[in-house]
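HOLO CASE FILE
Compound: iron/sulfur cluster
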Amino acid sequence: MAHDAIRSSLVVDEQDNATLHPPKNDATPKINLLGMSRAELEQFFESLGEKKFRAGQVMKWVHQYFITDFAQMSNISGKLREKLEKVCEVKAPEVVHRNYSKDGTRKWVFRVGEGSGSLVETVLIPADDKTGARKTLCVSSQVGCALDCSFCSTGKQGFQRDLTPDEIIGQLWVANQSYMEDVAVAERTRSVTNVVMMGMGEPLLNFKPVVKAMSLMLDDFAYGMSKRRVTLSTSGIVPMIDKLAEQLDVALAISLHAPNDELRNELVPINKKYPLAQLIASAQRYLRKDGNESARKHVTIEYVMLDGVNDHLEHAHQMVKLLQDLPSKINLIPFNPFPHAPYGRSSRNRIMAFQKVLSDAGFVCTIRQTRGDDIDAACGQLVGQVADRTRRAEQWKKKVAQQHEIVRSQG
Ligand code: SF4
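Model generated. Tokens follow.
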């Protein structure tokens, strides 16, 4: 029921509706069903003269059984399957690189956009918890990022473009599907247990596509994830936190990284526009929308530990004061250095001393395990390397072509 409420609150505007009508001729690109919400798919099937419930059937094939070939969708009539084949497709972004770490971490680099050089990355981090194996997928929302946080590898790449809903949900689709290769269709189950929108980009600056993709994560006909296991992490776009509160009930994380405005202006420059007092107030408003079944019990505070920069005990005491009226869980993240990073990782002792101040003050404060060090798990790092390799390969090809040209002109 809660899922229906979420879906009905999503606004499908006129432009979105325009994309639902089937293409008129073969030259028109096919409609990608992967990123469509249930409401949109229902509308689409109605536009084909079909019953609405077809939407749920197709969603299950696509998102739960990872079937992209309409011919295999056996509970759908042959005539409709043929029609779908002609006008639709189910297409995830192309995987150009994948890396599976010894500790179970998996990482993918996707090319987004036909023939484009735009790359994004997704990382799956397994962790054992009380209930069994938890697998958390960190999903990207933009190619690059405009916010230029000083410790972030993605920020150094600048902003290229927003991802579309199918490019966002496609990351979850590929991660789940990576466990299914040798599993019979009838036995397939989803493997990713948690999603956090905390990869490349600021999700609240790509609001509609992100909300649409997250609604699919929650939808019982798609991934059916618990709203407490789906988290949006923001660097603090205050008006959009309020907008999110109106549209979707998911967990909220804030990339804080500094306990005072002076330091946060330096580390997370968006703080100059939305200073800490405004950010904390908006997080409080987000939690006030609470209901019994809501995901909004507390906010997760993400704090990257930068050696000698934001890891002094004085900073921990400032955090205690800053968060005193905000129900929060704090996650200390040892910095994962990338080439030419201007910071180093805080020592274990410094991180533990920092944690003690927060724990003694009554906060639940955890230290994130560093995972996937052997596959460059720092956000944006692998994309940088793949892009470098691609650039180097292109430069090399150009050089060889020039040499051939010189030899030809001399001969
Ligand atoms: S930390 Fe997040 S918001 Fe900041 S530059 Fe990196 S991707 Fe963007």
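CASE NOTES: Residues 1-24 have pLDDT under 50 and may be disordered. DSSP finds 13 helices and 14 strands in the chain.
CLOSED: yes
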